[in-house]
Every structure is written in C-alpha cells, then in structure tokens.
Design goal:
Blueprint: H1 6-19, H2 65-71, E1 78-81, H3 84-94, H4 97-101, H5 105-110, H6 112-121, H7 133-137, H8 148-161, E2 164-167, H9 171-182, H10 205-214, H11 216-236, H12 238-259, E3 260-265, E4 282-286, H13 291-294
Parallel strand pairs: 1-2
Antiparallel strand pairs: 3-4
C-alpha cells in the first residue's frame, strides 16, 4: 500500500524471510520493484522457483486476489492503511505532483475535483492517483471512484481477504498484532522508519475534511479498517497491548541508540542505486556495523 508505512512493514517481513531462508515471490526483471504497477497483479509477472512454491510476497502491487491465490494459496494476508487526508499530502509530496503539475498542494486541497485532471495529466504512469489511492491499490478502477456499489463491494472483499489490516496512525500496536499473527520474535519487529520524507506540509481541519470527502471511498475503507483494528486490540487485551507497545518502544530506542548515528538526506549518496526515488527522503547513518545493526 503506497505511502502508508508499507516500506517499513516490508522491511520487517524481508528480514524475517532472510533470517529463516524463505522463498520470496519476486517480479521478473523487466517489472523491477513494483510488479508491473499500475497493471493488476498477475501470477505471470513473477519469476519461477524450482518447486513453484513461494513463502513471502511483499512487494507493492495492484491487487488481484484470485491471481495472488494462485501463487500463495494458504498465505496470511497483511496490509496497512492510513488516514486519507494525510495520505494524499504524503503522496502529493513524494510523487512530486506539485513540481510536475505546478499546482501547490494547498491549492489542490481547496478544490481537488477541479485540479485532479491537471495533476493526473502530469503524473507518472506508475504513480497511484491523488484520490482513493488505497482502494486503487486494492484494485478499484478509476472509473469506479464515484460508484458506491463498486466501492462497497471492494471494501467488503478487502475485509474478507485480509487477516490483519495494520493502521499507520497506530503503528506500534500494528507491529504487536503482526507479531501475534505470524508468531514472530520481538527482535523481528524492531524497525526504524523507512522512506520517510524530511518535511511534510501541515493540513488544517478544513483541508482534511475536504480531502477525506474527496477520497470518500478511502475514508469509508479506513473507518471500517480502524473499527476492526480496535476490535483486535480489545481482543488482544488493552492492558496487555499497552505493556507490549511500551516494551517495543523501549527496545527500539535501545537499538536505535546502538546502531544509528543520525538521519540525513539520501541525495548526497554517491551510489544512485542507494538513493531514494525522490529527493527529500531521510537516510539513516549507521554508527555500528555489527550483524544485528545491518540486518
């Protein structure tokens, strides 16, 4: 799920897979890292394995549930969602939509329906649209963005298929639930924020309301996911969750102090392959190159 903290979740799962020598579902080289986005996922996009068995599929994709089931028939399904207003601001900045369209985010937020065509015209084809982008990643068509029946059907399908829908605004709690679902170790879910921008633009209450209404489908999805998330936390135990998130934060702080010298921009990196796709992304400077810190 684009711009929801998914790169950080992906890091947790990749580390776990490497640690346990699991087989990753990887895109064919021509598709690079996004599995032929924005086309809907197809099993033919993946490289073959010797026994045609995959343990982990952790790439950004445009979801097609039936095609995923062909390659991962018994998998646990995990995703993450984010408040639609904050999500749109994040996408707008990360995908350089202001720079490409010459339309400031503040102007877009005043009347997104008016400015949407011009922004889309200047947006790269592999970038999700600045409207209902979570539902878009889940496979909803652009033509269905105002189709309430199609939106409800897609939300129902998402709620049915996914075992855990993490929430970006409740990230620590999400990691604890992920650990519980997949039977991970505490060390598996210690992670530092990845692909985060150095600066974000503040959103006032009026802008947030306009953006949530503009992405009404995503807002409906987010509210449903949040309701289910809160029920999972209640089932886990509120006091237990408070204790476990406090422990996770303390463990993460300790590892951060041990491993990280600071945060800087990824732009000065000489190796372009190590730079982030956009300029204003934080990069972590390591101070400790032990096996634990590198992993």
């Amino acid at each position: 799920m684009h711009k929801c903290g998914s790169s950080t979740v992906q890091s947790v799962l990749i580390r776990y897979g490497i640690k346990h020598n699991l087989t990753f579902a990887l895109p064919k080289p021509i598709y690079k890292i996004h599995i032929n986005f924005p086309y809907h996922f197809n099993a033919s996009f993946l490289m073959k394995t010797t026994n045609n068995v995959y343990n982990l599929l952790v790439h950004h994709m445009r979801l097609n549930e039936d095609e995923v089931k062909k390659v991962m028939p018994t998998a646990k399904w995990v995703t993450i969602v984010r408040d639609p207003a904050a999500l749109l601001e994040s996408l707008y900045g990360y995908a350089k939509m202001e720079k490409r369209s010459k339309i400031p985010f503040e102007k877009f937020a005043e009347n997104p329906r008016l400015h949407f065509p011009a922004v889309m015209k200047r947006t790269l084809y592999h970038t999700p649209p600045p409207r209902n982008l979570m539902l878009y990643d889940f496979g909803l068509l652009l033509a269905e963005f105002d189709d309430q029946a199609a939106i409800e059907a897609k939300i129902e399908k998402v709620m049915k298929h996914f075992d855990l829908i993490m929430v970006a605004e409740k990230f620590d709690e999400s990691l604890v639930l992920l650990k519980n679902l997949l039977c991970l170790e505490w060390s598996d879910i210690i992670v530092f924020k990845l692909n985060a921008r150095q600066e974000s633009k503040p959103i006032n209450l009026e802008q947030a309301s306009i953006l949530r209404n503009w992405s009404a489908g995503d807002t409906r999805l987010y509210n449903k996911a949040l309701q289910r998330f809160d029920a999972l936390v209640k089932a886990y135990g509120t006091a237990r969750m408070q204790k476990d998130t406090a422990m996770l934060r303390e463990m993460t702080r300790a590892e951060y102090t041990k491993c990280v010298a600071g945060v800087t921009s990824s732009k000065p990196l000489k190796n372009k392959k190590l730079r982030a796709w956009t300029e204003n992304i934080n990069a972590i400077r390591q101070t400790n190159f032990s096996k634990l810190c590198i992993s």
